[in-house]
Fold this protein.
Amino acid sequence: MIKKILKITRNLMILIIGITSLYLINLFYMKPFSIDHFLGKELAMELVDSPEALTYIGIFDRFNWITKHNSKLSIPKDGDLENEINKTKGIIRNLYKYEDDDLSDTQKSTKKIAIFDYENNLKELQDFPYHDYPLNQIGGIHLNTIEFMSDMHPVRSKNEANDFIKRVNLIKEVYEGIATELEKQSEAGIFPPEFVYVRVIEQLNEFINYSYDEHPLYNQFNKKVLLLNLSEEEEEFFKNAIKNAIDKSVTPGFKILRAFMLKTQKNANKNHGVWSQPNGDEFYKLRIRTFTTTDYSPEEIHQMGLNEVERISNRMKEILTSLGYDEKKSVGELMNELNEDPDFLYADTPDRKQIVVNDYTEMVNEAIEVMTDYFHTMPKAGVVVKAVPEYSEQSAAGGYYQAPALDGSRPGVFYANLYDIKQTPTYSMRTLAYHEATPGHHHQIAHSLENDELTMYRRFGYRTSAFSEGWALYSEQLALEVGLAENPYDELGILQSELFRANRLVVDTGMHYKKWTREKAMDYMKSITGMSDTEVKVEIERYIVWPGQALSYKVGMIKILELREKAKNMLGDKFNIKDFHSAVLDHGNPPLFIVEEMVDKMIKDSLN
């Protein structure tokens, strides 16, 4: 036990000494000695400043007796914006001091990524600090706090249970800080659309009016406490402690947020696109650059989407006609009929969710076995399937992924939304499983987390959905190509998923650039894809509060497929799919222009 403590202390001291030394070097010398150390130091300092990030990563929990991060939350304060702007400017100045001639090829890529990222961040901080909607129906602070505490905060010991209570008691203070930021947004003349107010107020009312047994913080916490095998007196202590924290912190915090929403609801934006916000067109261009890592214009992406919609729809029509469906009907009409067909729907029984989760698990396990032939390495971290929590399922997306902990204490999780049985037609399940789990998000993210060749910055410092979502969408097609969806209905499901992402290019630019209404976007998506009304509504409303993000999927997929075709054409018989996948996946989560550089290098090396 003493040796274990000494080892932990030694590792912690190395971390602290390393961070401190690097900080002092940067302070006293104009040029830091290594771009990797510099960016690693900046990332480490960001982690130290974010107790939530430390908890999420997991490996720092062993040092919680010193850091105390598991009992803290990030609380917004006056001056945060100005401090962040000044800090970002300083980082950019330092990055430009590194001469390319002094850097390795990998470091040159790192420099390009970091400058691209920090300059985009600086522009958003300076020009658009209040264009996001901190309170929204899918990822608002009110939902994120509950999800973080319920799903991410560990309760493996009595101390961690006490930390849970301490954190919950800080929620009111967090929301007071958020309310101050919301007032600044209001002063800037930025308000979300009316439907956002309606949804968020409904959600806040639910949280405020929950009984203890209904409250996710109460029931999730108590489930975890019961697993600790404490005495009855200790279990009762924690039950009373969480009740008290909900009464004195959580519910009053929700009331603060609700009061702001009710007060400003009369100012709700009458339009749905960010074009209607101050300098909204320029904000949208920045979002496109950030999320797609390209310089495509909104018009170029809109036309790209229309072309892809036509191509994919034609293939789907071929399949539907071969299956005997009415060729006079549109793809959207036929797919809508499939959505309603009871042959493809689960019975709405009390155990439906568990049945669906079990079926998804079988699909994931099958994919893991098959995909070993297409990658040099498979992730060590496991992945499990869970239903989206009931408190967020009505407004959450159809599925999403949560990364595993670095120390192996928590597997990756594929969350499936099982609120509406029409959201889970059986022919669409495989494509969602491949997108979220293997070979999609889980494979890519776990692979990066486990890649010891990556620097700290390349592993944790930069993320782009153009790569991660582009890879996940590419994974759906890869699964089809390797025989994981031999049933023509399963292929229809994969094509419908791709058509759905192509639609996003059209409706996202439609609303935020071409001034479409929410209703026009819903009608378009419904008519083209045949998705259910529930799915269409949730998705379109998601794009409204998260402009530009939905573009990244198809743009990223198109680039990866273009690069694969380029490699095949140039290498011929020398082309190896495993080598191609390594060239794409072995470099973290880079912008698409870096992916292209890595594939070009793989081609050159293979030809030599």
About this structure: Residues 284-557 form one domain. The CA atoms of residues 54 and 569 lie 45 Å apart. The chain has two domains: 2-273, 284-557. The chain has 26 helices and three strands.
